[in-house]
Amino acid sequence: MGTFGTTVGFRALALCGTASLALLLPAAAFAQVSASDPAQLDVPQDQAGLDGTADDIVVTGIRGSLAAALNEKRSSTNIVDVINAEDVGKLPDQNLADVLENISGIQVDRAQGVGSNVSIRGSSQNLVLINGRATTPAGDARGGVSFGDVPAELIASVVVTKVATADQLEGSVGGIVDLRTYRGLGLKAPIASIRAEMEYAEYSNSFNPRISAVFGKSFDTGIGEIGVVLSGGYSNQTVREDALNVRYAARTNVDLTGDGTPDPYLRPNYAQQFMTVRERENKSLTGSAEWQPTPNLKLFVDGTYIDQSVTGSEYGVFFHQPNDISELPYLAQADIQQRTSSGFTYRQMMSGLIADTRLRPRNNSPARFTETYLAAGGGEWSMGDLVAKFEVSRAGSTSREAGLEIVAQYSDPASPNFGNERGKISPPVFFDLTDDELFFAPDRSSPLSANIANPAYYQAFIARDNETKFRNTENAQRLDLEWKAGLGPIQSIQAGIRLNQTDSVRDRYTQASATFPGFTAAARPNLFSLAPDDVFADTGRQYFGGFVAPASVTLNPAETRAAFRLLPEAPLDAAAAFRVEERSLAAYARVNIETEIGGMGLRGNAGVRYVQTDQTTIGNAISSGVVSAVTQEGRYRFWLPSAMLTLEPMRDVALRASYGRSMRRPDFAQLSPSVNFPLVGDVYVGTGNPDLRPQTVDQFDAAVEWYFDRNSLFSVGGFYKKYQDLVTTVSIAPTLINPAGSRFDPNNCATGIFNPVAVDLTGNRGVCVGTNQPQNAGSATLKGVEVAFQHSFTYLPGFLDGFGIIANYTFQEGDRDATFTVPGIVSGGGAPVQFELPLRDLSRNNYNITLFYEKYGISARVRYTSRDPFLRTEATDLSNNLPWYQDDRAQVNASISYDVNPKFAVTLSGINLTNAPSIERAIFADGPIGQYRAADRRFVLGFRGLF
Description:
Ferric Hydroxamate Uptake Protein, Chain A, domain 1, Maltoporin, Chain A, 27-stranded antiparallel β-sheet, five-stranded mixed β-sheet, 7 helices, globular
């Protein structure tokens, strides 16, 4: 055990100060959660405990996991975090995103309550590897396999590197997440583990099964030792999320103060309410076979396959208020307040009635089908002091994203305009966000709401059909050499080369029907149904439900297309297709040192990586409404130096310092010269930029780690990052304005782009739209502090010695060379106001606290996670192409298991126990609420068995 861990005084201090430390000192680099049993997996004997003694740790359960992970972190020369699968198959989280939430500096985003995206030190531009090899994305981004697609059951351990060494793959300005799967030659005993669970999701009222298994064995044969491991899993999960979003417009012709002059203020322009249901089915398989015919030669093959499908429906309704109406009849009932946000003063409607709305129910049936694979073969050969590792790998993914949306309109059958937009019925709509809880619903007491549930009052408005296909491949060949030099402090010298061939292809297929095709919901009852009336039921307020909405069309898309006179298959949208081909060469050299200075241990490494990339972008451009092919080629080179040092001034203390330069190539979609037109034309469209340069970041790190007791760590670290050529989204507005709403002339679209197929909200086809384009926008800096505390109270009397704590805290602050402008009309001053933009995905304060207990066969943990607001995007249609923020949010998860016997355990988990909503805001981090979401609370009952 550690020198300081044996002292009664420190243990008393740890006991008394645990609560305050948990709140003030969360994690910079701890290594948490789950490792395979060190007695069974490939953990060297000298790493079995913190000081190498076999009886220094418990080798199963949470503490065995923490000890193995801490030991790997401690022995590393650079700053890493390690998570191991607590015993075989016992990882308590659902997917990779949920797993990574345990690490300091990492924040998780969620979709329908399920972990989906990960930010590492303020950046979502990370790199996901499997056994050190690159993976491919589901879509047209970078970074590799989606965090939400990787089930936890595949993971033996995860290593997160925040500052890359020269031998590691380039491609991340946040962090490198390396997933390790189970390997066979390291097994000390056969593995046979099965885990089965049933999850109950509260909002969707669904029961969701999950099952996984790991089998492995090593054989000592006449031709050498052979190890084989096979693991797989299956899950089917239905989840639900209720959402309401509002877009605000600036009103200018209302006199609020009675002084005879208009007083500009923000009021809702449109709102959308959704009940989003997603069914996720995941099938995964990973396996490896290793053969060591001689002591100096080892060969292997391994592979991973993931089949993820996501289908669902979005019952929703769209309220739209035209821009040219007067609100004076309703102004007396409205609450309009003067508000201050980030030092900016504006007026905003907080509650009241809104008139003259268009009520348009809709249902979208989104789907994504993704198959991801990674296969590799190679080996390791040694001759004396020289070790050579060689391998070839191929990663690939095919993904199909589709959506078929039906929209109807609440209309008056007695009106002569029943078959067009002017036949609408406009019930007054309540709007309220006075309690920081967004509410928007029709006034049911109004006679105009009397026929909300009558299908004869709903005219079909439009159908929109789209499908996007992605195909990504990455082939790699690499050779790594290491010479165990033993030249004084120089322990070894490494060098290597890697060749890479990457291709990314996107094809999009779109079509939209004519508006008002001439039938009602009553005439086509098979295409419509009553929407549920329990949206946001937990709030205690009656949101909008029970209206007639298009039914989910997942099972009958052909019938829907025929009813709206669409083609059986959507035609190719040539304007959106593109292909990116890259060929890269990377070479590196690295020197590893280990010595003593004044009796203090010193180890580290220094190296440089050279990367050369040849890039070809093939796509289509739009000019005066004409599509033409565009091909652009480019080449760039980067030198990426790095250096890491670890000094051990005393036995249980490590001082670390590191520097590294990393680079990140732009996303494939960002490089595309093509245009991704939406099927509604009054929004900005996304375009690419083939001239984008890769971003680079120089990063400096320093940390102090104190391993004061077994399974225990206290660390404090600081980091500073300097970004160059930061990629950001820039809005380019069209200069042609047509107040009459008639068709735009594509030859007079000026800086905007003419969309020949779009349909605007009044039914006009072909509109001029602005663009949102990625550009290299200067530099940025990021600085932060990470603090970690981890401790097991093994010295307490009786049952209390089963308690432990894991806590981490991250502070981050960034600045960049980018601003945005708030129109003066919003403030009422008449002059635009300019503000600085923060970095995307950057939360200032983040922390989580995990309390665990392990004794008497009980293994339990409760985790509280909190994250400050952060910028999602610089410009989006939801905020009139101004910034869009995620508000702060906290979540509580818990799990408990009981070992019935050494081979069998029962488990129970709860996710999102406090049912915390997710709130997004427009313009500023504390600006007006733009979106309000509430997801399932979920409970999981299961068992684990070892055979």
